Every structure is written in structure tokens, then in C-alpha cells.
């Protein structure tokens, strides 16, 4: 927030925040270890922390808020904030059409990051992209508070 303000911008009006939490990188046995703070959170604790951040800061997008195998964490978090924050499935969905379909069916995310290097072939990438488009997981989120002047 200080950096946005020091750059002469208004947080939430001219500049919003997108996070790539990459939670798979610090999750072990269902617990999320915050190294700098030397504390460990369960799914509910991490979700509560992230919801508090969303309430406090002009966050418009969060990628991989939970570990790739924590589908319930994704589902609960998307239910809590997915109407006003873009929840990006990257590690969870790995550009895989079947995973994209499951995510849409179970409301695990609001969009998917499509990366050909994850799928392995152009055909698999395109199939995942088609699934995302067909199921409504392809749109970039534009929350009401963001100002699209840029």
C-alpha cells in the first residue's frame, strides 16, 4: 500500500493488487507454514487470513490461495470472496480439461491460468482452453472498485 501511495497512485482506484500465493510451496500435511512469521495455519486459518487481506486491501485477484490438493480450501474461499475477487486456479488445474471441468462444477475457482508447458501438447492446451471458455472460467475479473483508466 505504501509503495502504491509513494508512487503517487490511489490504492483501489488507480492501482489494485494481484497475488500469487503459490500455497502448494508452503503446505505440508494439510498445514501451511509461514516461514517468516514462524507459524503454521490450517486451511481455516489460511482462509481467514486471506479473507482479512481481501477486506483490508484492494486485492482483485488471488492465484493458488491453497495447495493444489486442497480442493475444499479452494471451494470455501471461492464461495467466500469469489463474487468480488478473481480466484485463479494454476497449480490446481494445470491446464487440464478434466480438472477445469471439475473446478467449474465444484466452484473451486473463478478462472484458470492456461499454460502450454503444463499440458505438454498444443492439443491438450487447446482442450483445456475450450473447457474454460465453455464453463465460464475464461474471463478476467473486473471488480466494481477497480478503475479501468490504465
Question: What secondary-structure arrangement, pairings included, does this model have?
Answer:
Elements: H1 2-6, E1 17-20, E2 27-28, E3 31-34, E4 39-41, H2 43-56, E5 59-63, H3 71-81, E6 86-89, H4 97-106, E7 111-112, H5 116-119, H6 122-135
Parallel strand pairs: 1-5, 5-6, 6-7
Antiparallel strand pairs: 2-3, 3-4
Helix pairs in contact: 2-3, 4-6
Give the C-alpha Rg.
16 Å
Which strand order does the major sheet show? 1-5-6-7
- Report the count of strand segments: 7
What's the CATH architecture? Alpha-Beta Barrel
The parts where pLDDT drops under 50 for at least 5 residues are 143-150
Query: Number of helical runs?
Result: 6
**N-to-C series of helices and strands:** HEEEEHEHEHEHH
Tally of separate domains: 1
Q: What percentage of amino acids are in beta strands?
A: 15-25%
Report the CATH superfamily. Enolase-like C-terminal domain
CATH class categorisation: Alpha Beta
Provide the CATH topology. Answer: TIM Barrel
Which bin fits the share of residues in helices? 25-40%
The largest β sheet comes out as:
4 strands, parallel
In round numbers, the mean pLDDT is 90
Shape assignment: globular
Task: Determine the structural class based on helices, strands and strand pairing.
Answer: alpha/beta
* Terminal residue distance: 18 Å
Walk me through what this model shows.
With 150 residues, this protein is α/β, with parallel strands linked by helices. It has one domain: Enolase-like C-terminal domain (TIM Barrel, Alpha-Beta Barrel). Helices cover 39% and strands 16% of the residues. The protein contains six helices and seven strands; from the N terminus they run αββββαβαβαβαα. It has helices spanning 2-6, 43-56, 71-81, 97-106, 116-119, 122-135; strands at residues 17-20, 27-28, 31-34, 39-41, 59-63, 86-89, 111-112. It has a four-stranded parallel β-sheet, with helices on one face. α2 (43-56) runs parallel beside α3 (71-81) and α4 (97-106) runs parallel beside α6 (122-135). The longest helix has 14 residues, at 43-56.
